[in-house]
Amino acid sequence: MKLLTHNFLTCAIKTCKPSPQSYPLHFRGCELVRAEVAYNPLFIIGVLGRLEWGALREGAGELGFTDLPAEKPHFSIPLSSTKASLPDTSTPPADSDIPEEEEDTNMTTSSPSPFSSPLPPNTNEPTPTPALTQNAAHTPDLPPEQDKLLRRLHEVLLETQVQDGSLVCGNCGHVYQIKEGIANFLLPAHLV
To answer: What pTM was estimated for this model as a whole?
Structure first.
């Protein structure tokens, strides 16, 4: 389980929902692993607005990452950096860019079907989307101290994974086990 995921979890017991002590859940006895993930600073900057910074610092501190700043960082990206990474959607594709549908001779009925459009052959290999490829490969021009902090946040949020351990509710003390990177939030019948 990634620390990014932890930031969105709260106790599943109904009586804990209104209590502020039920969030964030606390890590106990955790085994960490690191899995490399492609660095995408634009993703980190985008997700920061959705994170509860206090909960992130608390969870990261429980796992030994005590070097995150006290205040949530704010990054300013030069407009030229973001424009270069986004696809141009200002003009629709020309009619010549849209493939024509071929008549399906294998159809057994003569009525048109909404499912009769030809699909590309399944090659079991994903076709890269140019816009996504450009986004992932593009790194905005940032001052070195901001880039260093973004790389640290990338490491903490995306590359650090809790392999085994537990999450504990600060309100009721219920323990959610983490096995092979997956937290078990199934509750016994008497707690639902």
So the answer is: 0.67
